[in-house]
Design goal:
Elements lengths: L5 E6 L3 H9 L2 H9 L5 H20 L6 E6 L12 E7 L1 H8 L6 E6 L17 H9 L5 E4 L2 E5 L4 E4 L2 E5 L6 E7 L7 E5 L2 E4 L7 H8 L13 E6 L14 E5 L3 E6 L3 E6 L7 E4 L3 E6 L4 E4 L1
Parallel strand pairs: 1-2, 1-3, 3-4, 4-18
Antiparallel strand pairs: 5-18, 6-7, 6-17, 8-11, 8-15, 9-10, 9-14, 11-12, 12-13, 14-17, 15-16
Length: 299
């Protein structure tokens, strides 16, 4: 007998909850913010809107379903099942945080604070959850299959990201490495820079786009569902031993970048989550390309 669907409600700790954890009471949090010209009431109102949205979504889960909740900080320890319908209640970035831990489960993005989020990934309102959840569990539900980026090291460490993967120094030092491209006979180029960014069409609305605009690039950035990636080298430095001829490009499915570390320590992390970084040491190689899994985001 197949299991009934399980609604997994993904949420994050609110700013108000973080303030209470730090300062102990509402009054102390209010004093702390007022000394900086901010009002605790505005923060509490956002907290209440987020919790109302979460409660409304929880109440919309069909009675025959199972349901559970997972906080953002616990995603790396949570086991998603094939029968899950993942309901992200929060901001666009929370969808990206969850995406790397999924294996094809449908995702419903619920905007917990309409008007404050772009709504690129959290496209729906809490009031629509009662209709959306049964629809998402159906075979053939309309979804956007969003391309993801994958980083794999030569010792089999693996990282997935929905927006982008950054490879570079953990601080403000210079990253030294050689950069090679799959499918070309050209030799790898030794480079010194502040890091390399490889991103998707979804990420092309954020960090990736800022680099694209900064250098007035002529590259056509991919759309979210395009099976292509864009990549940029940040602040490449020319010297007698390092070059700057490979600083941007596009990667089709099946092609990738090879980066071999020539520094004491570099890191690779996805979607801005530095706490979940891969550690890279001298001589280690990391390969970056289009990931096989895709995020299935419900219309």
């Amino acid at each position: 007998m197949s299991l009934a669907p399980r609604a997994v409600l993904v949420h994050r700790t609110t700013e108000y909850e973080e303030l209470l954890a730090r300062h102990g009471t509402h009054g102390q949090a209010a004093f702390f913010l007022s000394a900086r010209g901010r009002s605790v009431e505005a923060v509490r109102e956002r907290h209440e809107r987020a919790h109302r949205a979460l409660a409304e979504v929880a109440g919309a889960v069909p009675l025959a379903w199972r349901q559970t909740r997972v906080e953002r900080a616990d995603l790396d320890r949570f086991l998603f099942g094939p029968e899950d319908v993942v309901v992200v209640v929060g901001q666009d970035g929370l969808v990206a945080n969850a995406a790397k831990y999924l294996t094809g489960q449908p995702v419903v993005g619920i905007d917990a604070d309409p008007g404050r989020n772009p709504g690129v990934l959290v496209r729906h309102r809490a009031a629509q959850a009662r209709r959306l959840l049964p629809y998402a569990a159906r075979e053939g539900a309309a979804v956007d299959e969003l391309t993801m980026v994958e980083a794999v090291t030569d010792d089999a460490q693996r990282l997935l990201a929905l927006n982008e993967v950054y490879v570079g120094p953990p601080g403000h030092q210079t990253a030294r490495y050689t950069l090679g491209l799959d499918g070309t006979d050209a030799p790898a180029e030794a480079q010194a820079s502040s890091g390399v960014l490889v991103g998707t069409g979804t990420g092309a609305t954020g960090w990736l786009r800022s680099l694209w605009e900064q250098r007035s690039s002529s590259l056509a950035l991919p759309a979210p569902s395009d099976p292509r990636l864009a990549w940029f080298v940040r602040e490449a430095w020319p010297s007698p031993t390092t070059g700057t001829t490979r600083v941007e490009g596009l990667l089709d499915s099946g092609r990738g970048l090879r980066l071999t570390v020539e520094s004491d320590r570099l890191v690779a992390f996805g979607d801005g989550v530095e706490s979940d970084a891969l550690e890279l040491t001298w001589g280690q190689t990391i390969h970056l390309g289009v990931a096989a899994p895709r995020l299935r985001l419900v219309h």
